[in-house]
Fold:
Amino acid sequence: MRAALIQMPVTRDKRENLETACRRLREAKAREADIAVLPEMFCCPYDNACFQAYGERSGGEAQKTLSALAAELELYVVGGSLPELEGNRLYNTSYVYGRRGELLAKHRKVHLFDIDVEGGQRFMESETLAPGNAVTTFETEFGTMGLCVCFDLRFEELIRCMCLRGAKCVFVPAAFNMTTGPAHWELLFRQRAVDNQCFTVGVSPARDETASYVAYGNSIAVDPWGSVLCRAGAEEATLYADLDLNRVEAVRRQLPILSARRTDLYEIREL
Structure:
């Protein structure tokens, strides 16, 4: 399965962002990608002040555009994420479209990014966004895939649940910042791959030093052994990772981590 990791710039112009995404998706198809992944908040500045104004209800412009293009190109599209409006709530939501343009999955970011790092970044998604409440997987001709958004990756239980459902690869539209990115980005993608013996694919916006929130970039793909298959820098780029999904079962046979779990012990009991 060939995955295209589209690390694109995100501007304040939603239409420009959509045009960039569509252009990159067409290029990905021309390079024989099977699935293409966009970054977190690919059509909206990553800023609490912007989420409401850029938000879409079901069937909004970006959703229709990605669905139509997935059908036209016969390409699986992991549509990064965008602000989703439902009732009086706002979610950070990733949509996945199949080769016929059908909606395969919708993941609302479960763990909101509320951090206040001394001497570093402060960002409180919960001031604007509501959390989702689902473990998200979807089916493809290549098998089961997992999906989460950015901060979700830090929670091993969520990724483990996807893999127990059969996920061979976990896709993560994400926008780590210049505090957490250098410290934890590669570490987390490699650790989740090793813990769950699956592929992990993280896609970030390109870095914009003038933005109110500066994304780390460094989009990455990791195999089930923890080896980095490709990694971008800060700049706009599309990476291509050829994922040999047979590696998942091969690694699980060599190191029987999932099958050797002791679930009879994994709970806190009163002494």
User: Anything to note?
Assistant: The helical segments are 14-30, 48-54, 61-73, 156-164, 180-196, 246-254. The CA atoms of residues 41 and 82 lie 5 Å apart. The mean pLDDT is 95.
